[in-house]
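Exercise 7.
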Amino acid sequence: MNFEKLWVIASDVYRKTVKSPSFLIGVFMPFIVVLVGFLIGAIMDKGQETTTIGIYSKQPVLAKALAKQKLPALKLKQVDSVKEAQKQLQAEKLDNYLVVTKKDGELLSTVYGEKVPDDATMANLQQALNSLQTSLKAGEYKLTSDQVAELMQPAKLEGKELSFTDDGKVKTSNDSSGVKFALSYAACIFTFFLVLTYASLIAQEIAGEKGMRIMEVILSSTNAKTHFYGKLLGVILAALTQLVATGFLLGVSVFIMRDNGSLNEMLANLNFTGIEPSFIILLLLFILAGSLFYAVLAALCGSLVSRAEDAPKAIMPVTYLMMAGYMLGLIVATNDPSNFIVTICSYIPFFSMILMPIVLANGAGLMGASISLVILVFSTLVLAAFSARMYRVNVLVYNQKGIWASLRQSLTMLRKDV
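Solution. The predicted structure, written as tokens, is:
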């Protein structure tokens, strides 16, 4: 194989790919999705209607204390009587009103209105009443504010991950299952869009060259295998570039938004210290190996058609296979990662790049993940070797009868060539 020609072809494909709109969309798509999510959340927060509830009690001190509490999407105001509350309710100045009484040291409350408040509003009211009752009980028992705070302090509960070293020693680390799940879920989505992007690009590239009838000129200066592998190398280099660019932009985004309250709250609930480097490495390897596997498959499908316009139809099998793995990962694996079907499919090359990271994040051993990765890499190499041979015999075949007719013709030619 002429490595100089291989690199020239790869460089040409790489330049075309990184300049394409699909590449730029792929790089910025994760951030567009996150930005849209933040905007939707902000719009929903701002657009959320505030429920106004009147508070009445025969003991005004109770109504006053309750009305002072600040609750999300809820405005509490004291009213002088039930009739006044009903009058304001009829005038639509109140959404509901609450009558609070105290009997035997316990607060008894009833909400009235044309419509009973939703569950979220009822939960907020319950929280406010619980807080008020705690304060009243503290007064009866003559407790100080510090003593009340101490009584209200929740018990601490944390999780520890347990593992065993090769020499039998026990190793514990902080629970990082939430972070692992989030990373594997993100890898699942990223791999899906990465595969769809590059499968389409490489199929269009190969089918476009056949459609322009320039393959004879190209193959006069290099052989078909070098040309095929050069295109694959160019695509995988573009995928690596997109992966690095996405990681860089993600880091820049986190740095810019370091003072964002929602982001800090989310990061505070995630424990990154318990993540092993092997988990991140395996995640990246599955993304790259999976992308290369489907790129080879898409290149083979693209070489079976004679026009660039037919490339989308040619890669439909690739799309369906990837979609099946994606749906299986998002619907089944995320809810039941130990499912028998998920376990089996996580070792099948067509689905393992989607399923195994999710299974790994939910407690699967590194050995199983490594075996799955080896199967995926080996399958990719075998598929690449087979596809290169198929490419050599069908790259000059201009069959107008469809992809399956082209496949049968190419297999017949391959058998004769052997």
